[in-house]
Amino acid sequence: MIITQFRTSPDTARPTLRDAVTGLPSYVPGRRSAGTDIAALASNESHYEPLPAAAAAVAAAAGSMNRYPDAAAVELRERLASHLGVTAGEVAVGPGSVGVLQQIITGLCDAGDEVIFAWRSFEAYPILVELAGARPVRIPLDDAEGHDLDAMAAAVTERTKVILLCTPNNPTGVPISHDRVEAFLHAVRSDILVVIDEAYVEYAEAGSGPDSLELYREYPNVCILRTFSKAYGLAGLRVGYAVAAPAIAEGLRRTALPFSVSALAQKAAVASLDAGEEMEARVAVVKQERERMASQLAAQGWKLQPSQGNFLWIRADDELRARLVDAFDGAGILVRAYQDDGVRITVADAASNDRVLRLLEAHASLTIL
Ligand SMILES: *Cc1c(COP(=O)(O)O)cnc(C)c1O
Description:
Layout lengths: L18 H4 L16 E2 L11 H11 L11 H11 L6 E4 L1 H13 L5 E6 L4 H8 L3 E6 L8 H6 L5 E7 L11 H10 L5 E5 L14 H7 L3 E6 L12 E4 L2 H10 L7 H12 L1 H25 L10 E5 L2 H13 L2 E2 L1 E3 L3 E5 L3 H14 L6
Parallel strand pairs: 1-10, 3-4, 3-5, 5-6, 6-7
Antiparallel strand pairs: 2-8, 7-8, 9-12, 11-12
Helix pairs in contact: 2-10, 3-10, 4-9, 11-13
The structure holds pyridoxal-5'-phosphate.
The site of pyridoxal-5'-phosphate (PLP) has 14 residues, from α4.
């Protein structure tokens, strides 16, 4: 090789990040617990230990960690396909549904294309969109903390490539009804991919949200996004999936980082699907606790929208938010605070939930007036 360009020394130039990267809002993870009496209610994780079958599958697979995982995740995709009544060709997996969502956005959006989503919603959305060089279009939630689908449909332009619907919505817990999603799909162009992010679908009452698989069969521009991180309790292993038309799903598999879903995660996910009834029994307890908390908080004077997730949402101005965060911090309870918007609290075991109820009772009067 012949070097034809020489540095003039001393050279002060430095490598620079793309503007899209320096301008990124950083993802603020839920704070993590350190002590033993700390209640970790900031990340909507399952408070249960891993399902025994998942833990056993991980232990059995650990002996092969010198090997690469199955890059095509065939066993998991086939198991998901039979679970959902689709074909394995319609399933793509990734490192968490955030990983799959990154595959979706980078797979569909060129620089300057637009991605519409409700706001406030999942914090990863604007980050993934901007990282891809696409433009986030945030549509404010309606007065009932739900998606304003009319405004979202009205925001469509010729640059719109993807629309994200989060149901039940993180952080507000409000679902979008089947009929409203269907009317929306009827209204928007069929070349726009409509992603239905159902990270909390297992916690939703039947009928409160869309039957997304039925909508997918009717509207091939629907993409269903789900995760093993929440109800299945595998947040630490990183595995999620999408169901989409075969050509889209194939594209998502091609945009995936090779081997991004570990063998341990693949095995644990298969075992978790096999242990579906155990998972559902756990979810039923969380739903009961959610309703118990909601009715006690209503009795205390809090006016909350009913949540269909494993979390509760308190809309709060900055003053109330600051007071609540101080109080929760002081009580050793980690919750998620959102500037200008409010506080989200994960529903966990009864004892932790009681601590939350006692604390909020002392602050309930702040919301009256
Ligand atoms: C937690 C969450 C996810 C899932 O994240 P993973 O990457 O699967 O852990 C996706 N969407 C929403 C709205 C979430 O709250």
